[in-house]
Amino acid sequence: MTDRPSPTAVLHEGPRALSDAQVREIEESNLADVLKVDIDDVIEYVHKDLKALPDFTTLYRKYLKQRWDVYDLDFSQDVIDWQEKMTEDERQSFMAIASGFHHGERQVEIELPVFMIGASEEEKLHIAAQIEDEARHTVFFDRFYREVVGLKGDDIMDILDASFPWVSETFVGPFGLLAYQADELRRHPYDERARVRYGTTYFLWIEGVLALSVMKVTLSYARWRGFLPAYYTGFTATCRDESRHVQGGMKYLQDAVRKDPSMINEIHDTLRTILYTSGVNSRQIYYEPLGWTQDEVRILFFQQLRRKLNDVGISLSPDLEELLTKVQPVLAGG
What we know:
Structural class: mainly alpha
Number of helices: 15
Radius of gyration: 19 Å
Shape: globular
Oligomer: single chain
Distance between the termini: 26 Å
CATH architecture: Orthogonal Bundle
Strand content: under 5%
CATH topology: Ribonucleotide Reductase, subunit A
């Protein structure tokens, strides 16, 4: 077990500078060595190339080097930690976050192909790799729920159905919007405005803000407690995969706005929809058992949002700036 850092202190720190050695460790570690990688470094690595985004072929080459085998993970220690060391409150909080990922990975696995139709050939390589990543992540959570949590089912959909009661509106709302936008793209796959709306919801908010934020919550908990080594390994490798997805998605949005500056209105309108509905929660996630408060997690969301947009040169409209000011809590302490 490591000393638990204060989330508030971490939120005050600002961007971390990664050394060349840390970057190599993140990019080149095999699955066994991923356990040694600090999740905060991986999340910072996501932002490393946002100001000079790599092209889609480069991202595809990274994918080829970073693929990992979900069946190489050994969950035997995780079973002991889950059953004998974690409290019931910790397990319930963990399930609420993990279930959102479980369903999110599967939804993107089946819906991202519609975004590929209108893409460039180079982007199609990257998206095809991402779909394979999402399938691997779905199997990762299927194994975790079967072997560690103990959910029963004959097939993958049985386990998805069994984990659904833990999914909160934190995940349901954005993924419901994404499903609507995916249907729009099925009908109009070459509509660039529809593609930008989909890209804003998925690449910017779901992957760039929501996923990276709650990854930090669960993985910092696992690292602090010294629990769930296979989960930490697999989910950190998942976060490394997400770095490619976010960089590719933000490159798409950046290119779209550069080609047609009016596309920024589609980004702003989509963010308004997400932010105005983000406070409607009948099934909330309680982060406190994992060491975070609700306010700290919301601040993390908005920090992640601002960093993505700032790094790729996309500004917020005045009304969105005002909205963020109203809904963002104030950090306590120094």
